[in-house]
Amino acid sequence: MASEKPGSIEQEQDQALSDLERSLLSMENLDRASPEIWPEKYPGMTNFINSFTPSSAVKLPYSRELNQEDQNYLHQLAALPTAGLISKVKELHDIAYQLGVEESKEITRGTYLNLFKQKRQK
Fold first, then answer.
1. What is the rounded distance in angstroms from the CA atom of residue 103 to the CA atom of residue 106?
2. What is the Cα–Cα distance from 72 to 104, expressed in whole angstroms?
């Protein structure tokens, strides 16, 4: 068989793939907690948002059990044909885009009105 011979095409391809994999390996660790690497787009925004939500009251939406309405909606989505599911995903994408546009306008408005300026404690 050709694969058993030293220097065969399969062995050369396997060697080339393993060399490529080693050259693409990155040992870099991105620490997203660093404000110097990932600065806030609008300084003070995180503190401003966190001032409205107490940390003990925050419960993630995906950590709760599904109620009957959620289960019915999942069954409706599961029953859709592929084209219907794709159109639903596109509809959700459009809604998310519009929400992003509106949020961007509100953030810009808040920036112009200096709403996110940190209060200095004396």
1. 5
2. 33
Helices (H), the chain: 9-24, 45-50, 68-79, 82-112
At 102 the pLDDT is 93
Q: Please report, as a single letter, which amino acid is at residue 106.
A: E
pLDDT for the residue 1? 46
Given the structure tokens 């112009």, which residue do they identify? 112
- Alpha carbon of residue 117 to chain centroid: 27
Report, as ranges of residue numbers, the positions in the chain whose pLDDT lies below 70. 1-7, 26-40, 53-61, 118-122
Give the global pTM: 0.43
By residue count, the chain amounts to 122
| Burial degree of 3 (CB within 10 A; 0-12, 13-18, 19+) | exposed
Q: Which two tokens stand for residue 87?
A: 């159109």
